[in-house]
Automatic annotation (TrEMBL):
It is found in: Cell inner membrane. Residues 5-252 form the ABC transporter domain. SMART domains: AAA (SM00382). This is Peptide/nickel transport system ATP-binding protein. Keywords: ATP-binding, Nucleotide-binding, Transport. Coiled coil: none annotated. Transmembrane segments: none annotated. Signal peptide: none annotated.
């Protein structure tokens, strides 16, 4: 098995507030230690509610944010510090909001050229060729290159965002809610394009979304994130069909319908714990119908269950 990405105990806390002498008053643990591998050519879906740490995880993986602890290995090479240029040759980020993620004062050609100059020192003629090739692969016309981001629709702008990520020649893409801002009909086009590109360029994807149906459709495996921790990990066709973690069950019960945002049923309450003052045991205990005393005092670890899955729960649901 070739691993594209290997995270070991990767964690991030943000110091917050100012205490009496100017020191931090506390820390938000946005990502608790995560250990996870992504196989070459795989799409790993990451689902979780708003605020569960998806973007913080993504930003560490592209070198925009320095981890508090833990290690990142990309294609077998360890990356110790946050360095967007070093990461950028291997792994690229595709943002949720395509238009605002593109610099409004630059033409699309200038936007596309930046990574080729910065990451690869590519001469002008080679850049031109490379950009034409990439534009063709995302089904965009070359004449678009001399326009500005605001002249494009959301779907076209997201193709440009994907093209920019591909221009860097990275083989791993972090797709952070890549279709959430698009109309449902356009979503399907962009998802099909991503599938074609993955096959054509042998890409590996981390596909982050709060939309269960989309994640289920595009992923090989799915990791369910709750309050900064992976609580369940397994094959895409099993995770929501036979959830083993009570939180995954809750998500699955909120009916995966295309385009429907991830929302927990009212009765279960929708509050995440206070990140400045996390509970001592399982973070889901306050919402869990199966919680016991042990759950309220001890943190469950992600352990293998069944043939392919892993779950962080003292009382996993039957398969
Ligand atoms: N720069 C920051 N400073 C303090 N807290 C932050 C910062 N960025 C994110 N957080 C907190 O970390 C948690 C996870 O945020 P985020 O990764 O953006 O979640 P998601 O992308 O899943 O919505 C949230 O509680 C958020 O408020
Ligand atoms: S560890 Fe306990 S509280 Fe947490 S999800 Fe499992 S049963 Fe529920
Ligand atoms: Mg986010």
């Amino acid at each position: 098995m070739t691993e594209a990405l290997k995270l070991t105990d990767l964690a991030k806390s943000f110091p917050v507030g100012r205490g009496f002498l100017g020191g931090a008053r506390g820390a938000v643990k946005a990502v608790h230690p995560i250990t996870l591998s992504v196989r070459k050519g795989e799409t790993l879906g990451i689902v979780g509610e708003s605020g569960c740490g998806k973007s913080t995880l993504a930003r560490m993986l592209v070198g925009l944010l320095k981890p508090t602890s833990g290690t990142i290995e990309i294609e077998g090479e360890a990356f110790a510090t946050a360095d967007p240029a070093a990461f950028g040759r291997r792994i690229q980020y595709v943002f949720q909001d395509p238009i605002s993620s593109l610099n409004p004062r630059k033409t699309i050609r200038q936007i596309m050229e930046a990574p080729l100059k910065r990451l690869h020192n590519m001469p002008a003629e080679a850049r031109k060729e490379r950009i034409a090739e990439i534009f063709d692969s995302v089904n965009l016309r070359e004449e678009f290159l001399d326009r500005y981001p605001h002249e494009f629709s959301g779907g076209q702008a997201q193709r440009i965002g994907i093209a920019r990520a591909l221009a860097a020649s990275a083989r791993i893409l972090i797709l952070d809610e890549p279709v959430s801002a698009l109309d449902v009909s356009v979503q399907a086009q962009v998802l099909n394009l991503l599938a074609d590109l993955r096959a054509a360029f042998d890409l590996t994807y981390l596909f982050i979304s709060h939309d269960l149906a989309v994640v289920e459709a595009v992923s090989d495996r799915i990791a369910v994130l709750y309050f900064g921790s992976v609580v369940e990990l397994g094959p895409a066709e099993e995770v929501f069909a036979t959830p083993r973690h009570p939180y995954t069950r809750l998500l699955a019960d909120s009916a995966p319908v295309v385009g429907r945002p991830l929302a927990a049923p009212e009765a279960a309450g929708t509050d995440l714990p206070d990140p400045l003052n996390p509970p001592p045991g399982c973070a889901f205990a306050g919402r869990c119908p199966h919680a016991t005393d042990r759950c309220r005092s001890e943190v469950p670890r992600l352990e293998p269950i069944g043939d392919h899955a892993r779950v962080a729960c003292f009382h996993p649901l039957p398969a």
